[in-house]
Task: structure prediction
Amino acid sequence: MMRHDAPRHANTANMADMADTANTANTIGLDGYAARIEALARQLGLAFAPVEFELVPDSFMAEIAIYGLPVRMRHWSFGVRYIHQLVHQKMGNSHMFEVMFPGDPCHAYMAEHNSVAENTLVTAHVLGHADFASRNALFLRFGAMAGQHILEQSAARAQRLEMALQRHGQEQVEAVLDAALALEQHVDIHAELHRPPYAALSGPAGVAGRRGGAGGDDPFARRYRRLPGEAAALAARETARARVTQRPLLPPQPEYDLLWFIAQHGPDLADWERDIFLAVREESFYFYPVYACQIMNEGWASYWHARLLREADFLPPALYLAALKSHSDVVRPYAGEHQQALAVNPYHLGFCMWEHIIEREGLARARQICRDDDDCSFIRNYLDAELADRLGLFVHESRRDGETRLASRDLRVIREAILAPKYNYGAPCIAVTLLNDDGSLVLRHDHLRDGRGLDLERAEQVLAYIARVWRRPVTLHTADFRGSPRVLRSKSDGVPEPPAPTASSTTSAATSATPTAPPTQR
Result:
């Protein structure tokens, strides 16, 4: 999903006046402009699948943005997000212009309340998104796995879920959705969507196929077996070896795709429950490139909507000026009339980076980068010191006592602060490490790799969700915000047991580092 989530400003009335002027000047309508902008885009070398545009009410736009898809399985968490989004819109903190879904065809939804100038800009912006999706290797790979018809697939899944609700009741279905949606980012993006089960194992190294030793047929081994008590010990070892061979260790290595593992190995999951886990997993695969390429993607679309508007000499001057005002609002580095920003606007950063790259290395090189990179390599390779200084980027620390202060202007630190929320799909690195003989499950959080511990209260709730569908005890090895090891255990009914107390330690207030930029001079 792509969306503009641009701030409204104190001068909204002036923008509305300009839009009214543009509407008066418009004599051929948005459809005519859209067709000519698309022709111009192809003339400038943009390549994209057909795009289907649709004007929809504001309420439907909000639903699409919250659910992630026009039609998706129902769950209470989407309602909470919907209310949060409406509050922000009512307070004037956001303005949603469009939501776009790549595929073949692409689908773009534009708000009915947009002016002709705004929707002209949106049209050009969507074509930039469509071009990016048709070039980028990550979009192409995940699109091929998750399908190019996600809207139709999602609607079919929603219908199957409604049937499950009628058959099994809301409480039972909601328990499965609680667990699946709580784990929706816990997929292995390096694996295939349709992956085979674990290969059959012959047992741990040194057990099966071992030569020599007590099991061999040499004279020493025969004498060894005749020693008092060795016959019984040998029989016990052979029994253990046979059991390990029959039931290989699961998983054979730490498994980070929690949705896949639960769907494949949940001891008592019904088919419809497995279907929910696999459906959420497939949608997570579809959304991953949007998440992993947000800065690149939004910057590329913003670069192209600005260029297309600039070169569209058929647009009336008043409409062009109104569209240019909307562009300025979208790519500005800070929100509203505030003169500072404590978070990076991906539209602004991506737009400036693409302009910088194209100015220095040319459009052909930019298209290679568009094809080969994601945000991690994009930021690390192409956010240079000159651009970071021009944009005024720095890292700040927000302490628990409310104090915020500048932490660093070092380029490496800035890059890593921008990318830190993007690692592992934005989720903590948690893996299944052992499925015990009694069906209990062991999870381990790699907090050293994450560089931080978990919110234990939320972790307990997610553990309870998992245990309710696993129907066996689940244990999570993790760490708290101090880095102290903690072990959370659930009961088979999904109610978590309180974590064992640990010795408290005196530490300084926790801090979080965030990249930011001051306002640019206009």
The mean pLDDT is 80.
